[in-house]
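Quarterly update from the structural biology core.
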Amino acid sequence: MAEDDGKHGLSLYSEQPRRLSSGSITSDAESDGTEPDPPVVRRGRRAAIYETKNCGDVSPTTLSPEVSPSNSCDEGEGATNIAERLRRRRSSVDLAMNIYPGDLLVQEHHKKLIKRNTIADFYAGRQPNGQPFPPGVGPGPTEAAAGGSGAADGGKKGRQPFSLLKLMKTRSKESLTKLDEILKRLKPSEFKDNHLAAYKALHWSDLIASSDKQQNSQLTTLSDTERKRREAVWELFKSECVFLIDHLMVLKHCFMEPLKKVQVEGSLMFAEPQDLFGNLDELSYVSYTFCKDFISALLKDMSIDDFGRTNVLLKAFQRFSAHSRDGAVYHSYCLNYTNALAYLEKLRANAEFAEFEKWCEQDPRCNRLQLTDLLVAPMQHCTKLPLLLHNVRKYTADEDERQLVAESIEKVEASLKQLEEKMRWIKNFERVQEIQRQIVWPTVTELDPRCVIPESLKASLSKQPCERLLACPKRQLLHEGQITLVETPKPLDVHMFLFDDILLITKSKKVPRKSKQSVSDMSSGQPDRSSYVVLRQPLALDRFLLHDVSAADAAVSGIKNCFVLVHISRYQQVTGVFTFQASCENTK
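Predicted structure, tokenized:
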């Protein structure tokens, strides 16, 4: 009867058109003095009261009879006590609830939360595996009895903290799977010139096709000098042909072209072929045209008496110089080589590119050569050209022809000298830029603590104007190293930078390694950076005198392997004396 009365009372409240406040949560069962028995599942559990401002309206008009607050009490605690709690926690003023676009995404879950006041209520409508029951299907007696403890344990096991590393690993596995599928259906790229490739395994004597025994006998009676000259000319052609087919074409068709095809499919989009392979296409074109022009000229001018004459060789080299712009094509590739190796190391840190590189190196055309072996091949080949030409000149008998070959050798060597100067300049400029980033210039207050600076000038004088002094394209770093500056009260270890115009005396200061380095720092493998604090003002090379201290004077003063710098101002005033001690006589 009490249970029927309670249901009847709740049905009356649900039929009222006016929205009730929290103070009207009473039933007919309470008015009759009877109280419904609490469910068996919820006995011994403490009632969980939600803040109504976060859960919305909890009046009987919005709650079903099964999950109303009057049914979610502990044994011995009536609904009146719960109503008193709600009166203390909730204001009697009803506020309008605004709906935002984000609320539509969590609408169903929001309804479930406001209808359940205990953990048991939340899991009462779920299956043992944590999933909600289908529509129209409710929990059975077994699930209802185990809903309090078993569901709560299952919910705890199902909830896992968010892990960015786990998410990255999952996406990495998906990307690797996608890459494997792309590589399986990838069509190989091939170099299609079997006519040129056939000459790679031939000898120059095989080109002279004659069945006449008299011509064969003339071929065997060639002088050793002429035979060696012909072999030198053929070696020049064969070297270029092997370089083209076994290195450039392998690098192009086994690595660069597959990378571009994979990127068309949407994988390895982070890799830049231009940064890794440089001007490989232009280099391949120059080498291919040189091989075609050379073999065409040799076959056209070939006879039993003449093979590989000097005019044929020079004609092929003139076209080679025109196509390569006097070696500028090789210069561009060689200058990019150092950056390409650094970029390759960064790419190898990615699992997808590492898998792609491994797949490319399994191609039989690679002949067990790795990507780094193929990338360095153009640099090695361009240095071989003068040696091959010297070998041709060595066995050329005609003096005029020797002079023409010598001019070609000078032209190639001049191009290599320019390349060496460019590489040396780039290396020097990069080092000067690195030094400028590491140099710390003391402020004027640190140099002269007793100076007084007005407030209006403190901001402008907080930094030194010479912070970007060093990074000049024409400045050359001649030498750098550790040395000891002898001064009182004790010697000081300093680091000196000798440029072509100034001398810097600095003190090395190690930057402590961070406990957690970024992924890019770890992949680049850079050591701990050092900063250099400038101890004295820069010394112009034309403003100091150098005095070498002899061994006898050093024995008197007790300072071995030392020399003295005397700084003189533009007004011929001695403004500083620096005594340096080297570790040995050679270093001095």
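Strands lie at 439-440, 477-486, 492-499, 502-510, 530-534, 539-540, 544-548, 562-568, 574-581.
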